[in-house]
Amino acid sequence: MTSPDPRLAEARERRLQDDFGQARALCHAVLETRPDDAEALGLLGICDIECGDVTGGRAWLDQAEAADPGNASVHLYRSMQFEAEGNAKAALDAARRASECDSGRFDIWGRLGDLAGIGGNLPLAAECFDKALRAEEQHPARAHVALRLAGLELQLGRTDAAEAALQATEAASGGGLPPEGLAIRAAVARNRADWSLLRDVAQDWLDAVPNDNDARGALAQALSQLGYYRRAIEIFSPVVAERGADPGSLAALGRLYLGARDTEAARKTFESALEIDPNSADALFGLARIGNFAGRVDEVETYCRRILAAHPDHLDACAFLSETTGGRIEDDELATLETARERSDLPADRRSVALFALGDAYHRRKRRAEAFAVWTLANETKWLQHNGRLESGYDRDAQCARVDRLITQFDGREPVGLDPVGPTPIFIVGMPRSGTTLLEAAISAHDDVEPSGELPALPFIFEQFERWARETRWQGGRIPDDRLDAWREIYFKQLREYGLDGAQWVTDKQPSNFQAVGLIRQLFPRSPVIHIRRRPLETAFSIYRRNFTRQWPFAHALDDIRHYYVEQARMCDHWLRTYPDNVTDIQYETLVIAFEDSLRSLLAHIGLSWDPKCLEFYKQERQIMTFSAMQVRRPPSADHLDSTTPYLEWLGDFEAGLEACGVDPETGEWRSANEGQAGSPRPGPKATEPEPASGGFWRRLFNRRGGAQS
């Protein structure tokens, strides 16, 4: 084979620089001594084509292909000729032929990827761009192709691959990402529900392009998910002002007001959107949510059915209607939800919403095998949403290590400082779905107490504490005052944002705060912590049936829920023993059955006088922003303490496994795993119980009621 003429390399460079005259001159010089040089003939052809002479270019390429049918460059240029002539299929075929002739060239794979993408074959385009990056690690266009690959991978739903391509972009460019890359990374963070990452990336994006509304929207979303709704409103308001009569932007702003608990501003904003578009699904859905938070189920049904009248296939409206009414939906609405079960093409987040609601609808109709099967599919879909694969994202070893570490760090010997000036939080902790909402509703009906719901502030502070403890190798004792002051300010700032800074007492019912009790004792020495327990199987089943967010990775498998329950019980047992003056526990079933006695004892124990309004909490006009928004609009009742009996054949050996791990399967109380006996009595309120919660008490209770009929 004749070696390539070095003048051809220079000709290629001249062509890439649009110096077509010099490129042609070099090619003609080569042809004087090598008249059948396919490279020179092909270069002359592409120069003519790029200068607008497609006919002349085709003639040169015909000669080149005749001289060397296996020349990859000739087929590459031929692909460009066909594209100029408007023959997309022939262009793609020619590029594919070029890749078969030479599989190690960046430009060929890049060309084939471009054409595949133009033709809508995104998987092929991504495959070709990936091969281009593997072919030449130092190509000058590497960063550009890597960025395009990242965008394709994102479109294909492969977020891990998109992030890898972004890292390749950064490495190839020797610096940060351009705005387009930041937009892709923001989308990756959004898909992963990694709101801290989204906040940081969106801020960089907005710094790079200060007037970019998409960047503002991404930053506002991140801030809202992290609980900074007022800041999110400030960021997003200019977008709404610029877009003017845009119902979608108004509805998004309304959702931010709703997150900030300004329901009046939210309602007005949603209504403004409806003035522009009376069928705006986003605005109607926002009004349905306001109705749900206020306990007005008729409003929820009205607005959801208005959505469905205009948008019959609106899965979110069907799902919300099912969730709010406990599965009481019409046959056509049920059929809409059933479509989600068969549609694997739906985004995982939307499919999971519909599937959980479909399970509720089947449950309502007593189609229990179908209900449990759909809930299982819904939870598997959550795995896909969070991890991109069918496996749990819950790290059992990490949770065990965290509990071990906290038990060591907070051993009760640390000195406690002075009480801070401000509202005194009452922390209600435990497992999700254990009765925290009921307990908060009752306590916050007291004249001296304001409810705050599930504040995100303390979980954020706890993350900062864990990071600080790792970095400083803190092993216990008094946390420095400057750190405590900074963390308290974060907490009180959120209370100010919610208009709660003037309260005497404030409830905070974020269940996961059970991990932060040692930290709470140093931050707020006077704050009572109430640990509420509920029969573990009931708790687990209720969690399994609900659409929990990424914050709760254990929530999507019964084995993971059991593990988390055990670690929660072990952790709370430590707090009860270590801080008996701050921490007390209460049994959900006892609270429901002997409500007044339990509540009187509890209020006295935490330092509150008796207020009869607490008994009629369900009559209070207030917003409740949890799964239990409708349930706590009614007096407490023992009628629904057993929801699991009809599902025991699918719930397996949950209770036996729990007991083997050291937890009482009837009360959820931590036992000594070695002795298998309940621990010593806990200090705290001694509520009057109908009979001891042991020896099958709850089963006997259910039998007295004639069995469970959920």
In short:
The protein is mainly alpha-helical.
What does this structure look like?
This protein is mainly alpha-helical. The chain has three domains: 6-191, Serine Threonine Protein Phosphatase 5, Tetratricopeptide repeat (Alpha Horseshoe); 195-385, Tetratricopeptide repeat domain (Serine Threonine Protein Phosphatase 5, Tetratricopeptide repeat, Alpha Horseshoe), CATH 1.25.40.10; 415-544 and 580-670 and 678-704, 3-Layer(aba) Sandwich (Rossmann fold), CATH 3.40.50. The protein is built from 34 helices and seven strands. Strand 6 and strand 7 (677-678) form a beta hairpin. Helix 4 runs antiparallel to helix 5 and helix 11 runs antiparallel to helix 12. The longest helix is centred in the C-terminal third of the chain and has 21 residues, at 558-578.
Q: Which sequence of strands runs across the widest sheet?
A: 2-3-1-4-5
CATH superfamily of the largest domain: P-loop containing nucleotide triphosphate hydrolases
What is the 3D form? elongated
| CATH architecture heading of the largest domain | 3-Layer(aba) Sandwich
> Could you name the CATH topology of the largest domain?
Rossmann fold
What Rg is obtained from the alpha carbons, in whole angstroms? 32 Å
Fill in the keyword field for this structure:
single chain, 710 residues, mainly alpha, Serine Threonine Protein Phosphatase 5, Tetratricopeptide repeat, Rossmann fold, two-stranded antiparallel sheet, disordered C terminus
Give the topology, please.
Layout: H1 6-16, H2 20-33, H3 38-50, H4 54-67, H5 72-84, H6 88-101, H7 106-118, H8 122-135, H9 142-155, H10 159-173, H11 179-191, H12 195-208, H13 213-225, H14 229-243, H15 247-259, H16 263-276, H17 281-293, H18 297-310, H19 315-325, H20 331-342, H21 348-364, H22 368-387, H23 396-409, E1 424-430, H24 436-444, E2 449-451, H25 457-472, H26 481-497, E3 505-508, H27 517-523, E4 529-533, H28 536-544, H29 558-578, E5 583-587, H30 588-593, H31 595-606, H32 648-651, H33 654-660, E6 671-672, E7 677-678, H34 697-704
Parallel strand pairs: 1-3, 1-4, 2-3, 4-5
Antiparallel strand pairs: 6-7
